[in-house]
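ingest -> validate -> predict -> emit
validate: passed (alphabet ok, no gaps, 324 aa)
predict: started
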Amino acid sequence: MVAIFGDIMGKDDYTHPLGPEPNFNESMYFNFFDRGRKSGGFVRLGNRANEGRAEMTLTLYLPDGSVLFQYDKPMIENNDAMDAGGMRFEVIEPLVKLRTVYEGGAVHLKDPSQMADPRTAFKNNPWKKVKVDLIHEAAGPAYGSTGANHKVVDPEKEFAKAHYEQHMKVHGTVEVDGEVMQIDGLGLRDHSWGPRYWQAIHSYRWLTINFGPDFGMMVSTVWRDPEHRTQAGVVYRGDKMDQIVGVDIDTQFEDNGLFHKSLVAHLKLNTGEELDVTGDVMGFIPLRNRRDGMTTHVGEGMTEFRCGDAVGYGLSEYLDQVVV
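emit:
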């Protein structure tokens, strides 16, 4: 049985009763990176059933630096399943084995930075047929919280009541215009539920890293507002899990000051151990979410990480509220 840190149970791998909040969101996210192919990606479904829609995202980083991307808001009527817009997530064995499937189109971006203007990027780039069929199996413990003691006071200011993550081994296929790529890699999955607006926090830095099937990290630093920051994360080595209690990240950005290209993270663990991690972005795509005149930038970087002699791959995700 997989180790669990927190109050998560097997039943939590399925969808939850729909809450009363207009912005109730239940989302599942899976990323994966095949170091042999120097490629990877992520898939996400966010059910916002009280709004009558889901959020579906597909991002695939290809070895030549280009990106395949699709985003849609398909209509849904309930929160009974993660199945919308050609994407489907299946729980084969709770907290142990899951399957992600996608079949549909995706825009092919030789210059992924064009996604800063989605309308133009979708219109001016070619589309390809994509099929994804991946199995995600537990590589490390599940960790997080169901938010049982969290009371929602103002849904407008919520980002996620419940949230847990887990490092995974990933294998399967990605097919692009009939050409099949075998995937054998590592990744991380994320599951959250509760009221959410992307504009509810000021910014965050989220690093998901796999150095091997028995060594991974998740690093998080979140600014609820410019003056208040939380630092957290985990380092797992086998079934042993240490908490990250201090995070300092120095980031190099492109000239626009928004697109990150490399980073150095200094981490302090609850054991007293300190670790330094460097990251170089291999593939980057800028995404955004807009609501009520606010624009949220989410920079997604497929990243090569180093910690001592260990070399790994994962995602560096940077969220910032942008004044336009």
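The first strand starts at residue 4 and ends at 6.
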